[in-house]
Amino acid sequence: MSLSKEHFSERKRTFLKKTIATGIAAISVVAIVLIFVFWVKAVVVEVKPEIAALNAQFTLNGLGWIQRDQVYLLTPKAELQITSQGFISETITLKHSTPERHITVNLKEAPAMIKATATPMDERIKWHIDKKFTDSGPSLRATVKPGTHTLEVSHPYYQPQQRLISVDRGAEKILSFVLKPIKGRLNLISRPEGVPVLLDGNAIGQTPIFMERQGGRYNLQIEAPDFEPVSDTIEITYQQPIVDRDYRLIYKRATIDFVLTPPGGQLSVNGRLFPVTDKPLKLDPLSELTINYSKAGYFPEVIRRTFRPDQEEKIALRLKPEFGKVTIKTTPPSEIKINDEIKGQTPQTFTLKAVPQNIHLYRLGYRSIEKVVHPNSRNATRITEILLTEEQAQLAESPEVAKNSIGLELILFRPDKMAAFKLGAHRSEKGQRANEILRTVKLNKAFYVGRTEISANHYRAFDRQTAASDNPVNEVTWGEAALFCNWLSEQEKLPYFYTTNGSNITGYDPQSTGYRLLSEAEWEWLARYANRSVSTRFIWGNETTIPAGIGNLADESSKNSVATYIPGYNDGYPKLAPVGSFKPDKADLYDLAGNVSEWVHDTYTVDYKDMGNPLGSLNNTDSDGHVVKGSSWKSGTLTELRSAYRQRAIGPADDRGFRIARYIY
After folding, report:
1. What is the Cα–Cα distance from 317 to 304, expressed in whole angstroms?
2. Is a pLDDT exceeding 80 seen at residue 506?
3. Sequence-ordered strand ranges (E) for 4-67
4. Cα–Cα distance, 119 to 138 (Å, whole number)
5. CB-based contacts of 443, cutoff 8 Å, min separation 6
């Protein structure tokens, strides 16, 4: 049978369609296989503990599927939730990019819940789980680990209860407790006995009382005639079921209203001071009380009384004024002020009130005296005083040895107690020089003198360019020494002794108590008369033999640097020595002999117009020079070692320094 051309073409098209369809299907299968092999990720999820794995359920949030414990993931990321009864569910994130093929998930046990209530409903109820405080109040809601626990409920007024309970994972345990009141005991005694007692306002009898009582808080009151009421709070608890009370009742105190004349005194009862006010005092009854009211200037009033309990009384205490005699005598007679009121001159006798009296005794030119006396009626008060002049008073206040602001010791001398003395030397004295003119001088004021010469360390406080040393300062002019004195006066707030014009000394104030140089008369008095029974020619006495160690003189060690030295004399210092290196002289002063000669206050002169002036003369010019007293480390002749020896000097020298002094008044 022959086929038409059209029929053959139709069969060919049908075959071609089937072939294409078969090819597409094969490609799809291959693609699916390739996706499964190369894209689908299989992850094994292991759930622990085993008891959680038995009922574990997986929920996948993402493209993929779950087969038993395997999760097949088609998307880059998906969330997997694992749940199991009695355990806390957990969600994990699975990522296609992570290499892990096995994941372990540990589920935690779900906590158990305990719910409990207690009757009666009271906020003071406390809950303890496994002996640990958990909560307070009438109800409890607490989460615990699954298992067995001890639950305890307590209240101070009820018997505590305890239960052993078991709770499963994620389970709820509901409990209720009915608390039973505790039975306690109340033991009440009092002194005295037989007083009525109220408990929460209800009478329960008279003391002593012994009774049972349920746990709780009670307000107790005791009221008895003549006694102060007692209020107390009593608690009977399961921790302290027995309450003992022993009340010592106190008598009601008496109420005393004191009327006190004059006011403002001191009121005491049995020695105890009470404030003086308008309010009545509460005093203890049934025992004798000593009541004392006193005030300065009055006789005290003392009464003894015994009061009844709860007694009320008004008591008036009136004091009588007290006076005493005061006799005042002074030498010389002086004016009297009593409490700033002028009363005339001494001697006088006054009748004064027995209160502190301010007595002021004064006389022109004398140091006034102020005293406070307490007159009394028992004994007369006698005031006998010697008024001192201002100079005498200042002298009495001055210590024998003082230390000033630069650490220099000052010694007090009182030449005013002595008669006039002679300065200079007689023509017949061996070694006498023409300028040592005899003259009579009296030193009329007490004065302080530096125990040592001014050291370089002392002077350095005034002039910082001075090298530090314990040796006496040297190479200073007379004017520089005087300016040092003014500087030191300023440091100690004393008036200047020297008047100046710039750095020039123009004069002095003889009344000033500021620092100054010794006068020639003072220097020679210290060297020849001070603390000596007779005038001496030398510092050490009248012997011409120089005692060993008397001072720093021109000794054997100095013979290469001085014109004349003392053969056989050794003091250990070829030149300067530290101040105070040798024993003090009879005036307790160091280095009046040797070390450095000393500038004194006086301008050099041999024409004495005022032979008795203790300060000598001081011109306004240095043209005549100033007096230098004393020997030095260069002195090697008996002439120079005599205390009358005096020199004229203008400028500084390496063996010349100074010593300071000042008046007391």
Report:
1. 12
2. yes
3. 41-48, 57-61, 64-67
4. 7
5. 415, 416, 418, 521, 522, 525, 614
Does the N-terminal peptide bond of residue 192 adopt cis geometry, omega within 30 degrees of 0?
Answer: yes
Among candidates 156, 180, 183, which has minimal Cα distance to 242?
Answer: 183
Core vs surface per residue 610-649: b (16+ CB within 10 A) or e: eeeebbbbbeeebeeebbbbbbbbbbbebebbbbbbbbeb
Q: Is the dihedral of CA 502, 505, 509, 514 positive or negative?
A: positive
| CA trace torsion 285, 289, 295, 300 (10° rounding) | 140
Report whether 634 contacts 560 (CB < 8 A): no
pLDDT of residue 27: 65
Confidence at 392, pLDDT banded by 50, 70, 90 = confident
Q: Are 528 and 443 in contact (CB under 8 A)?
A: no
Between CA 555 and CA 635 the distance in angstroms is: 9
In Å, how far are 29, 34, 43, 56 from 72, measured between CA atoms? 19, 15, 6, 17
Q: How far is CA 513 from CA 402, 498, 612, 663, in A?
A: 15, 11, 21, 5
Tokens, residue 646: 């005096």
How many whole angstroms from its chain centre is CA 473? 44
**Tokens read off for 517:** 């140089």
282: its two tokens: 């509460």
For 241-292, how does the pLDDT look when each residue is reduced to its tens digit (9 = 90+)?
999 999 999 999 999 999 999 999 999 999 999 998 889 999 999 999 999 9
Residues 6+ apart with CB under 8 A from 654: 474, 475, 575
Show Cβ contacts of residue 486 under 8 Å, excluding neighbours closer than 6 positions.
496, 497, 498, 500, 514, 515
Distance in angstroms (rounded) separating the CA atoms of residues 436 and 420: 18
